Amino acid sequence: MSTRPTITALVPAFNEVHNIEDCLACLTWADQIIVCDSFSTDNTVDIARKFTEDIFQHEYVDSATQKNWAMETLPIRGDWTLIVDADERVVPELASEIRETLAVADSECIGYFINRRNLFFGKWIRHAGFYPSWNLRLFRTGAARYECKKVDADVQTIRPGKVEHLRHDMLHHTSPTIASTVQRWNRYSTWDALERTKPAEERDDCAIVACASGRAATPLRRLYECLPGKPLLMFLYMYVLRGGFMDGKAGFYVCSLYAFRELLAGAKLWELRRDPDIYRHDAR
Q: Is 223's pLDDT higher than 90?
């Protein structure tokens, strides 16, 4: 008699006092919840202890490095690993689908893409390249890892097998306020600029374009890298070509903020060319 496959939910966290309880409450159906904390200075860990004793702390370098360390080092007991960020929510319909799907999954299937509904300022952004937003988040334990990028890294499988898609969406409360978005953009734009200082053969393509274009073809991203006026091009691409205008005022602000991130990245790249060490110690 076959046994039911077990699931470990892995949640990275840092100062997520406003998110962690709602996130973990959506994961109580999992067989194991692991929280990988980056030495939070608020009550994140205390809140997490209400849901799990599997709480581990590790110094943060970047999101991909943190998650890879957790997957390679922590005592994950589940047959399957589900990655959930603290600002994401697994709705009951998705939780049920995961359990039912894994119960009948064939041995050749090693992972599942989950579609995310990105909510900016509490509004679901359906256009501007944000939906659909497929992410490989559920996979057989040990079968995948994050690519080595400081920002906007994707999960990639590391052994042969089929990867399928689930039907129900995960909610992503990506930007609750303008202030939190600008704060995050300051950090991300530094990483974008640092990435662009690498030789072409050593770096991934522009993280901003990859995000806003739904992972468009690599030649398109490389062409974009060579063009002047990137902030304006970014706004026109997202707001006009990808239909951001159909999301109303929220769509306008989202597209404008992504153009602002591109402006920051370009300005910081200009700084780096004058002083290569100016941002080298910006880890978080």
A: no
